[in-house]
């Protein structure tokens, strides 16, 4: 899992939180922008691959997207993908799935929230919700379930509980899975959902082989993505399972890890001198 020169990928996918973005400091390392610009100058396509929806991107990430001209945005763990502000494809939950999920967690007195492509709608609020969403600075709207009316697509549901608060694994429909992203919260998704599914469809449309793609990530929702791409790079500050699944371990996100590893792999322009120690 050490870094050594590899063939330059045709496209690289970047997770946001604890990868590109230092959420505790509400910023991106100064070395990231010039590193990504160097990749663009070498003809590499750049993409975001995140569990966030478009409406809850941090301001620093929005600025990075605009300034670097990041090509593709894969959001909501692969459920909504866009290019230059326009939807390419999406995978919303079915109405029946939504009602089954919400009904189950309601019987357990567990707070939930629905995610559209750009909003988070909290159906109830508890300390777990405040803690989990607060850790990412995510704003939400408190609504009644009837107020959503599901007239707009819902891509995933958030459920706010600790493992110790349920007697057993959630008894959800066979078509549904959960992925924990915080001690107090899980993503609730269609079983076939993942960043990898969206990446697979995107690469097929671009006629790019998976071996010519690389991805940076740090957590459990990156595992399928790591299995699919040719070069999987986990942040050293990441979840142990993500580091175990990766081909390469990158230095910490708050220690200029992305720029350092891109330099070590030989993927930046030779004259690049912005990598800090």
TrEMBL record:
Gene3D superfamilies: 3.30.1240.10, HAD superfamily/HAD-like (3.40.50.1000). Pfam families: Hydrolase_3. GO terms for molecular function: magnesium ion binding; phosphatase activity. GO terms for cellular component: cytosol. InterPro entries: Cof (IPR000150), HAD-like_sf (IPR036412), HAD-SF_hydro_IIB (IPR006379), HAD_sf (IPR023214). This is Cof subfamily of IIB subfamily of haloacid dehalogenase superfamily/HAD-superfamily hydrolase, subfamily IIB. It comes from Moraxella cuniculi DSM 21768.
């Amino acid at each position: 899992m050490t870094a050594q020169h590899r063939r330059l990928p045709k496209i690289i996918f970047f997770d946001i939180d604890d990868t590109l973005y230092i959420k505790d400091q509400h910023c991106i390392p100064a070395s990231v922008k010039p590193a990504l610009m160097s990749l663009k100058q070498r003809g590499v396509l750049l993409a975001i691959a995140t569990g966030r929806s478009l409406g809850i991107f941090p301001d620093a990430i929005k600025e990075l997207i605009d300034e670097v001209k990041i090509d593709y945005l894969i959001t909501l763990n692969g459920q909504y993908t866009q290019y230059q502000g326009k939807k390419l494809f999406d995978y919303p939950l079915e109405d029946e799935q939504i009602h089954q999920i919400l009904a189950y967690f309601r019987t357990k007195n567990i707070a939930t929230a629905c995610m559209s492509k750009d909003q988070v709608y909290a159906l109830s609020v508890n300390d777990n919700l405040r803690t989990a969403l607060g850790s990412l600075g995510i704003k939400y709207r408190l609504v009644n379930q009837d107020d959503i009316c599901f007239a707009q697509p819902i891509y995933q549901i958030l459920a706010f509980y600790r493992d110790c608060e349920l007697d057993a694994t959630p008894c959800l429909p066979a078509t549904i899975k959960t992925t924990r992203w915080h001690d107090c919260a899980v993503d609730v998704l269609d079983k076939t959902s993942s960043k990898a599914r969206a990446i697979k469809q995107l690469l097929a449309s671009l006629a790019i082989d998976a071996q010519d793609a690389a991805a940076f990530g740090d957590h459990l929702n990156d595992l399928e993505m790591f299995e699919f791409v040719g070069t999987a790079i986990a942040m050293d500050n990441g979840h142990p399972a993500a580091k175990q699944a990766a081909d390469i371990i990158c230095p910490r996100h708050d220690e200029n890890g992305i720029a350092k590893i891109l330099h070590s792999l030989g993927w930046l322009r030779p004259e690049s001198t912005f990598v800090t120690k």
